[in-house]
Design a protein that fits this description.
Strand order of the largest sheet: 2-1-5-4-3
InterPro entries: Cro/C1-type_HTH (IPR001387), Lambda_DNA-bd_dom_sf (IPR010982), MLTR_LBD (IPR041413)
Helix content: 40-55%
Order of helices and strands: HHHHHHEEHHHHHEEEH
Organism: Streptomyces griseoviridis
Largest sheet: 5 strands, antiparallel
Pfam families: HTH_31, MLTR_LBD
GO molecular function, one term: DNA binding
Strand content: 5-15%
Protein name: Transcriptional regulator
Radius of gyration: 20 Å
CATH architecture of the largest domain: 2-Layer Sandwich
Number of domains: 2
Distance between the termini: 40 Å
Oligomer: single chain
CATH topology of the largest domain: Beta-Lactamase
Number of helices: 12
Mean pLDDT: 84
Length: 289
């Protein structure tokens, strides 16, 4: 671990970012054009004290998870993120391996979308990054670990998540989730991560097992879905999907499909963040499905 170099790199990247780039107001009392340490801590989900110790070459070795959070908070490019990992004494995540870090360009697009709910997903349905409106709409979906990281696993093994959809649409969503996973399994046939996930789902869910046997294939594209939010009610949303060239990550953008949904989304924006009941939209069964 190159503590001094790591400290210098983090400090310079923090000072180079304008607050507006990450959705933070400049404010009349700001005396520097860059981010404050407490703002980096907030964006990365870590303590201010740890950010201070990193920048003062006094920290322990940060974990790959913390480095990933810092890379997202500081909007690092792929090359900058790899450099960060090297300075901290870790191997960078492979560009063509399992997607664990949202691409820098996609994260910047999340910032630009502002009040439009959007999130970055891996091809296996892991939420890699969300903007604020996506969190308001669907809860923090980046918090899951283990098999719960995968949308298909949550959808078929946690029945309460279905409360985020009208009952009449749930069977259609079942088929969508399985057909999309089938397409990924075809592209990544030799990947044990994909094969293991499918095997565990077949063992855990008779419904998944039956649908998997039908061998339906459908790549995630544009869609319209009704979401049931615990605070503002039903929202009819159009979902547009932009896929990276290697098909390993995708940007999902949700826009209101009618005037009622626009009004309810505007209300949600005013209400702000609040803990969602388990199994409601915050359970991870809405925006990502």
């Amino acid at each position: 671990m190159q503590r001094d170099e790591l400290a210098d790199f983090l400090r310079r990247r923090r000072e180079a970012i304008r607050p507006a780039e990450v959705g933070i107001s400049d404010g009349p009392r700001r005396r520097t054009s860059g981010l404050r340490r407490e703002e980096v801590a907030m964006l990365a989900g870590m303590s201010v004290d740890y950010v201070v110790r990193l920048e003062q070459s006094r920290s322990s070795q940060p974990s790959p998870q913390l480095l990933g959070a810092l890379a997202r908070a500081l909007r690092l490019s792929d090359d900058e993120r790899d450099h960060l990992f090297h300075l901290a004494g870790h191997r960078p995540p492979p560009a063509d391996g399992p997607a664990g870090q949202a691409r820098a360009g996609l994260v910047r697009m999340l910032d630009l979308l502002g009040d439009t709910p959007a999130l970055v997903l891996s091809d296996l349905g892991e939420t890699l990054a969300q903007n604020r409106m996506s969190v308001l709409l669907a809860g923090d979906q980046t918090r899951f670990t283990g098999d719960r990281r995968y949308l298909a696993h949550r959808w078929f093994t946690e029945p309460a998540i279905r409360a985020g959809y009208p009952p009449e649409e749930q069977a259609h969503r079942d088929r969508q989730v399985v057909a999309d996973l089938r397409a990924v399994a075809g592209r990544r046939s030799a990947d044990p991560v994909v094969g293991g996930l499918v095997d565990r789902l077949r063992a855990a869910s008779p419904a998944f097992r039956a649908l998997w046997a039908e061998h339906e294939v459908a790549v995630r594209r544009a869609d319209r879905k009704a979401l049931l939010h615990p605070r503002v009610g039903r929202l009819l949303m159009d979902c547009e999907t932009l896929v990276t060239p290697d098909q390993r990550q995708l940007l999902l953008v949700l826009t209101p499909a009618d005037a009622e949904a626009r009004e309810r989304l505007a209300l949600l924006r005013v209400l702000g963040v609040e803990e969602f009941p388990t199994g409601a939209s915050g359970g991870g069964g809405t925006a990502g499905a």
